[in-house]
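User: Quick sanity check before I run a bigger batch. Here is a single chain. Can you write out its predicted 3D structure?
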Amino acid sequence: MALYNGILVNSNLRRLSQDRSHALNRVFVMPRTLLFSLLIILLRPALGAAASVASADELQVAGCAAQTPSSQTPSSQTPSSQALQAEGVRIRRIMFSPSNIFDETKPGERTGLFKLANRLHIKTKVGTLRAQLLFTEGDLYSDRVLQETARNLRTLRYLREPVLTPVCYTPGFVDVLVQTRDVWTLAPTLTFGRKGGNNATSFGIEDNNFLGYGKVLEVSRRSDRKRDSSNLVYRDPNLAFGRWTLDALLTNSSDGHNISARVEHPFFALDSRWQAVFELSDFDGEQSRSVFGDEIDRYRQQSKQGELGFGFSNGLVNGWSTRYFTGLRYEQQRFTALATSTLAVPTDRTLAYPFVRIEGIQDDFATTFNQDQIGRTEDQEFGINYSLELGMSLPVLGADRNQALLRAKISDGLRLGEKDFLFLNAYADGRFIGAGENQRVGAGARYFYRQSDRSSFYAALSGDYGRNLDAESPFVLGGENGLRAYPFDYQYGDRRAQLTLEQRVYTDWKPFQLFQVGAAAFIDVARVWGDSAVPAENLGTLKDIGIGLRLGSLRAARANSLHIDLAYPMDGRQADRGLQLIVETRASF
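Assistant: Done. Predicted structure follows.
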């Protein structure tokens, strides 16, 4: 069964571009092998079938009658959420209706292949869903809490279109029905890329809902022009069905390793009261620098980082959730020249600093459809969201310098009318005292104008300014950074400006009930200039134009949208001119 993830091929008619650094954006699902299918079938009895849960109609009819106290009679019509809150009713019980990938009651989803997929798939466990809820039996009914829970459920890659509904009303009490539909999460994968005779391949297996418990497990082997590596990834959004999370990565490479682990109790809701974080990472590997997409330099980077912190909040007060955080962070960067090095390596540094941070989130959210995705409910944040962090690096803690550190960001969403929305953001960060290092400020705006239910206009404008940027992190333009028709790492600098204009079309065409089709026409305009550690001729403002198809994934967890674009670079070197075919997966339209 060919539930897709994605393939990245960025080809010029005369040359193929380098493979992307984000390997997951070039992944497509291979057909399931007979051996693997038999393995799953054999394991299912041992693992246990998914919980037997009645259908939504059965829960609302038979369930209401069977489980409502005999002294009360369930109403045939549940009042509105506003009426339930005004009455002050409590949640008597929570009912779950998890559905499989395909609905076999629908004519288009009764095929033998879809039935086989349902049989092989292990449905999400009720305990996994319950662990994500922000309410429990006995709580006062709150429409805001139900909506926030639905937003949280929509962020889970193994679910599609969750619905939470009050049902089975009796005076003083109401039940809540949680309906979800799974997507395909078990993915044997293959990635590939090629440029200038250099090949990149990867194979492995990933499950975003391991055994129905919501855990992510990935094992893969990757080989490219940079390194050969074996990877193990594990993510647990609810350790032991609690609120703690775990993210772990282990990579063993031909040129080093990458190990990281993060354990966190997050602010999981607007009304959450505390957060705790413990994180460690250790990276050792080679990095490359390119000119016009062609590698010219390599050096070794060794990075060690750690963080320990705690945060607290008074919860949601007058429509705002304000959070305070303090902690200790350690960052060490070591750079070494290699035999292939042609440029000066970046400067070593060690920072060790206590920090304090304040964050604010305004409770102003809304849902939309066919905006940044196809055929999915999308959550838009219209309230103000800000963060301000201050730190002080001190030699007494192991640092090699005294420096003050600043990190700040803010975003806001504006409803300009019934059909147009504007989302603004800005940031500033850097190290200060003395000459200062890696100081950056930037701002951006995204504008949406909904022409109809099936079409919209999109525009994005952003600008960045840097001063004394670290040599390993300049502003970059290229195929990964706003210019789709150009090679990656095409231009560098410490100033950057970008504009994207896009006309989007959304259709209701769903080939094989696996994808939903859309289309786009776009123009990218961008420029980067100023100082850079990579010497290269600055080509000024660069532009490209293109058209493309969008295939929104309806049944797979790995990616939301497959992009198939034809793009033409209107500027740049003559050697880089020519029609480009780009096939990649993205989280948005």
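The longest strand covers residues 294-317.

User: Great, the batch can go ahead then.
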